[in-house]
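Report of the visiting student (M.T.), summer placement. My assignment was to run the structure pipeline on a short list of targets and document each run. The first record concerns Putative NAD(P)/FAD-binding protein YdhS.
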Amino acid sequence: MDTKVAVIGTGPTGIYTLKGLVASEVPLAITIFEAESDPGKGTPYHPDINDRAMLSNIASIELPPICEKLVEWLHRQSDTQLQRLRIERTAIQEREFYPRVVLGEYLQSQFLQLVRLGQSRGHVIDIKARHRVADIALRQDGIQISVQRPDDTSSTFGFDHVVMATGHDWPQNIEKKPGYYISPWPAPELKRITNRSVGILGTSLSGIDALITVATANGAFYHDATGQIEYQPKPDSDDFHVTMMSRKGILPEADFYCEIPYIAPIFCTTEAIDGLLATGRHDLLDDVFELFRQELAASDPDYAASIGLSALTVETLAPAYFAAREHSGPFSWAARNLAEAEQNKANRYTVQWRYAILRMHEVIARIIPQLDDEDLKRFHKHFKTVFVDDYATVPHESIKRLLALLRAGKLDVMALGNDYQIDTDRVERGAAVAVDGKTVAYAAFIDATGQHSMSADDIPFPSLQKQGVVRKAQTVEARPVQEEGSPDVTVETGGIELDAAFRPIFQDNLSNKLYCAAISFLLHKLPFVQGITSAEEIGGIVSRAIIDNVTAENRLQLVK
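After the run finished, the structure tokens were exported:
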């Protein structure tokens, strides 16, 4: 009898998990549950969730191939299909950024190819669209799933392995009170915001997504005779104006050219990090920072000198890194940075300090799970922001749209600092923002700070909660120097306690073949696991763990 595997969710993580599973030489019975009616597109790329103008923040060259590369898939589409996707055939390039809905079409195509491939290899694959998993319960000999069917009836299924690839968790009702939105998704909800003052909390890609959605409801972007992007407001949108706001009041930088695959670091290497991990110590952050400092100084001595790198610490790096941008107007900086990024792309020139930080973030991420609670807090509060800013650059077109809105008089950016208040109670619509003794009311207000880290208490499956098999991640407590051999004391800090294959860690005599591959629950200890590249890595780890287990059990049966 074939091993039964359930995959919950058909976004990128579920798709890359399926890619690994269909490579199994042992036949599997794979059931795929998807709450939406069209499996394979994934929430971040679904047309019902995203505005067609929203751009993805991953270039084609960075997207791990599934059955084929994105550009290969685009090239073999008909002219009619490309026209429907609003893509010029001559503009298909490896370093191009495409709309989110285009990636959704690509992912769905790859998903269906994987299903056919798996079936041709002898796997039984059953896709259950519009089936929402309502509960998961572990048993001694398997895992039970309760599912709400399209006709609102319920069914129960039993599996040997279950993969939670549920991805992002966006609220179903985002307008909590008139004009106050707690998420920019689903984007169509924001289309109702017309001819009003709008406040957007967040200036990163999520904030830009919200901005572009509202902007296209109040006007249109177009190319003028010189090819420059401009914005034309609708005739009845005189009151439409957006203020984007964040603590620093800065905008993300434009995507920068660099060599892919990455060139290996010299000092901050995997071997160096593994050497620190091998010591068994938990107070490692300052040692990691020293490796970071050596790598950055060697990669770009002039930049290192300009920010005074030799005298910086974990706590003072971010202020030095952001200082120049904070002291420039956000749009002046954005325009200069865009011009530099476009020139560097044309010349295939890499800014070495940016590239060094980009290459180090995945290496340094290896140390995070072993940090004690004090260093973990220091990392999240001080160090992480530099890496996130460096790798969360945005498409050049996104910056061009921001500048077009500025020229049209429809956009400004506000620095909130650390002392501000957002009040939704004393206004009829939207929210009022108080900063530096001044209060400004916005008829519509959108919280676009993105997907937040979730913890064990947020698991949406009641039986797992009742069984107590999902608990907050354990972190070693920072203490003064202890006597040699004294045991570590752990504290719960957040996220979910998982093993290396993303399985919950518990002592009960229950199945340990549940895999938590939902990114929102991993951010606490794996802070950089966002985007499609992380989905590929997680899907690969989970599928290998399942195949290794199935292969071992199959061999055992043959021996018997």
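The chain has three domains: 3-55+102-169+453-559, 175-252+397-447, 270-391. The radius of gyration is 25 Å. I thank the supervising group for their guidance throughout the placement.
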